[in-house]
Specification:
- The complex is a heterodimer of chains A (223) and B (243).
- Chain A has 223 residues and is mostly helical.
- Chain A is 61% helix and 0% strand.
- Chain A contains nine helices and no strands.
- Chain A has helices at residues 4-8, 33-41, 45-67, 70-87, 97-118, 147-166, 169-180, 185-192, 196-214.
- Chain B is of the alpha+beta class.
- Chain B has three domains: 3-51, no CATH class; 62-116, no CATH class; 134-235, TolA/TonB C-terminal domain (2-Layer Sandwich), CATH 3.30.2420.
- Helix content of chain B is 44%, strand content 17%.
- Chain B has eight helices and ten strands.
- Chain B has a four-stranded mixed beta sheet, covered by helices on one side. In chain B, strands 1-2 form a two-stranded antiparallel sheet. A two-stranded antiparallel ribbon of chain B has the order 4-7.
- Classes of the chains: A mainly alpha (223), B alpha+beta (243).
- The interface between A and B is large, with 61 and 44 residues.
Amino acid sequence: MSNSMATSAELRVASADMALLSSEALPREGAPDGRLLELCRSGDAHAFARLVALHEGMVFNLAARLLGDPEEARDASQEVFLQVFRTLARFEGRSSLRTWIFRIVVNQCRNRQRWWRRRRKDRCCPIEDLTPAQEARLPAGAQGESPYESARRGEEARQVQAALLRLSFDHRAILLLREVQGLSCEQVAATLRVPEGTVKSRLARAREALRRELLPTLGGVSP
Amino acid sequence: MTCRGARNRLSAYRDGDLRPAEAGRVAAHIRSCAACGRRWATLRAAVGALADLPRLEGSDGIAARVLDRLELERRGPGLALVFRRWGAGRPLILPSLVPAALILMVVLAGALALDRVADPGPLPEVAWRGGGETWEGKSAPSGSEGNPLFSSAGVTAPRARGTAFPDRLLTEMAEGTLFVETVVARDGTVSAVTLLYGDSRQARPFLDALRRERFEPGRLRGRPVAVSVYRLISRMDVLASIT
């Protein structure tokens, strides 16, 4: 199907009215990708809005951790979904939709990082400096924790993010896909388009690199 | 198992990718070797800390922005540029040109205003010393005959047309020194001649000759201005030594 299929289809998007997302006819989260993809391919803007809403959190999180800058991550996320929309017709379904989107995120962030380096742009607004309203929801069980505990947790997250940004892009990507997004080695291999053996050896090196970076803060860890 | 062998397998051990026998050997090694045990603990803690990173929330509005962009691409900017939600999406180039144009206009207006201050406009008509010391009760404008300028880097000196006075005056002059100020008016005539030093009777023929002198007027930024010119006229007879 040509790329112009979706763009030429009638896009009924007078505004980005997110009320559309509650449409009963659209697949819910956790539903198979097939039906949603079918609707998206037919140019159904509601279905595409649903697809974006289902995946924007994971796309933004991966981009933000890869780039270390929330603003850049928002822009990258926007570009990712535009690319998803433009290339949806070419998606053959050999990997899952989630894996395919992750691949686009990683490529988009890699290109953005190259662009930064070419322009010596090393500005970086630390993610962990976001206001609490924008900042993470704490994991279950952390509700009602003391201010000290909250501050300690925030500081730990800052140190981990800083260590992550000191790693190479490939190491960062593989760690985030495997440890944060919870992909299997097989899925990571499909996302990065490298053999599974390469994923395992690269993962081992990335874990060791992260361990070295975090070693000063892991002083209290006992075997 | 050696330390090196165990360390090379820690990542696979963590993922449960080792065969049971191999995993057992690694487990036994890290229990018995303090260095490898610590390495295993720190690796587990580092990876655990990464997995515990909080989920970030800041993706609100991405869907809206994407759909706006798609709509914009489908229809072209058109009125969407005018009616798009304030602050939504990336600013397009056109709105950013408006403040740029305003800034440019302010800069140009400032430059024009400064240029006007630098150009004082036409000087008053040539006035002669005596009646022109002041101009309508105020100090005479700089560069006019009542307030002449001095030759400087910015003011070109007047150039005399011909000689100031005949040689006869010099040969007939008695020994002495005269110091004279001549104000060259903007039209090249001499508006005032003042003897600053010397004998007035001896100076009289010189002053008369100087009043008749004509000049190419001095100029400031291309405009003729009145300029003061000073002359030292001196005669000294030197006698031959007696041998």
